[in-house]
Amino acid sequence: MHTSTSPSSSTSATATTTPQTVLDIQDLSIEFPIYKGAVRAVNGVTVRIARGEVVGIVGESGSAKSVTAMMAMRLLPEGRFQVTGGSVTLLGRDVVAAREQDMLDIRGRDVSMIFQEPLTALNPTQRIERQMLEVIRLHRPCSKQEARALAIRLLGDMRIADPEQVLQRYPFELSGGMRQRILIALAFSCDPKIIIADEPTTALDVTVQRQVLQLMRAKARDLGTAILFISHDLALVSQFCDRVYVMYAGSVVEAGPTAAVLGTPMHPYTRALLRALPECALPGELLQSIPGTVPNLSQPLLGCSFAPRCPQAQAQCQHKPPLQAVASHHQSACWFAKETL
User: Fold this and answer.
1) Other C-beta atoms within 10 Å of 144: how many?
2) 3-state SS, one letter per residue, for 186-217
3) Residue 294 and residue 324: Cα distance in Å, rounded?
4) Residues 277, 34: contact at Cβ < 8 Å?
5) What distances in angstroms separate CA 170 from CA 157, 165, 187, one per listed residue?
6) What residue ranges do the domains of the chain occupy?
7) What is the pLDDT along the chain (341 residues), one digit of tens a residue?
8) DSSP secondary structure letter of residue 337
9) Torsion of CA 50, 237, 216, 102, to 10 degrees
């Protein structure tokens, strides 16, 4: 039994569900069938996002960050996964039980997604104008001229100097930063209630990353749009997100305000991630890494999933720790978290 997402333990890190809640994932578990078994990719995850919030999910590869985000819009391939527990409520709608037509109605209009590689997200054979107008007119009742005017305004909001010229370009004629700004403009084109950004700056250099995130956050504040930001980059999350969830092996191991989680981490995994940052190493010094590998999620997880890699593991770690309050609005799934206070 997974106790880390019981109502009594989850409300301390996030506000209780209100009409302002745009995304409410409760105790979600997902598995992917494989030959003679299943990969239990998501294990009792709870994530809640309110209107206008910017919330991050961080963790190394294989922690189920993207699977959780894709399930929020039900973009996982139909018939290839099974929800074994929990619920996903998006803008008051039950995502798990919704018909595909219902999901088509809200994707793009009420909820948008920004993918990490704009060159594959945009059609290389069509000009930017055609792609933007198609999305706008699909979700907004407007003429072609009105849609074009909106596209120009959106590109201008993204600090693109000559929007009309850019509309006539093909994606491969533009830089990575320019393409990503176009994707962000598309995401905001229908004034969505929430945007899910899955590592949207991975392919960009550091300077362009910051510019893109600043533009995204400014636009979101203007519209009151919430953002779910998926990343492995703790530095970006620290600058961009109001709250953060740290995931490991398909579970949330720490959650709370970004300043608290990254400034006073209460889980050994979060502390290990922070120690592995390049800026923590002296010139010429080897970068720290986390020994071991993530567990095999096709096998049952017994006890704390991080225990085999944790230098502080003790006998009690053979039992799964709940996600519990360790400070105001701050939770950690570690038996010994409070001992670090």
Assistant:
1) 11
2) HHCCCCCCEEEEECCCCCCCHHHHHHHHHHHH
3) 23
4) no
5) 20, 11, 18
6) 1-8+17-110+194-205+223-281+304-341, 118-189
7) 333 333 333 333 443 445 589 999 999 999 999 998 999 999 999 999 999 999 999 998 889 999 999 999 999 998 899 999 999 999 999 999 999 998 988 998 899 999 877 778 899 999 999 999 999 998 888 999 999 999 999 999 888 989 999 999 999 999 888 998 899 999 999 899 999 999 888 777 788 888 888 888 998 999 999 999 999 889 889 999 999 999 999 999 999 999 999 999 999 999 999 998 888 777 888 888 899 888 999 998 889 999 999 998 999 999 999 999 999 899 999 999 876 55
8) G
9) -50
> Are 203 and 117 contacting, i.e. CB atoms less than 8 angstroms apart?
yes
Q: Name the β-bridge partners of 330.
A: 327
Tokens of 249: 């092996």
User: How many CA atoms lie less than 13 Å away from 15 in the CB half-sphere?
Assistant: 13
CB 156 within 8 A of CB 163: yes
Q: What homologous superfamily does CATH list for 1-8+17-110+194-205+223-281+304-341?
A: P-loop containing nucleotide triphosphate hydrolases (3.40.50.300)
Residue 282 dihedral angles phi and psi, to the nearest 5°: -75, 155
Strand partners, 93: 90
Identity of the amino acid at 38: A
Element (H, E) at 149: helix 144-157
Contact status, residue 219 vs residue 157, Cβ threshold 8 Å: yes
Strand stretches in the chain, DSSP E: 21-34, 37-50, 54-58, 82-90, 93-94, 111-114, 194-198, 226-231, 243-248, 251-257, 324-327, 330-332
For residue 262, give the nearest of 249, 251, 283, 277 by alpha carbon: 277
DSSP 320: P
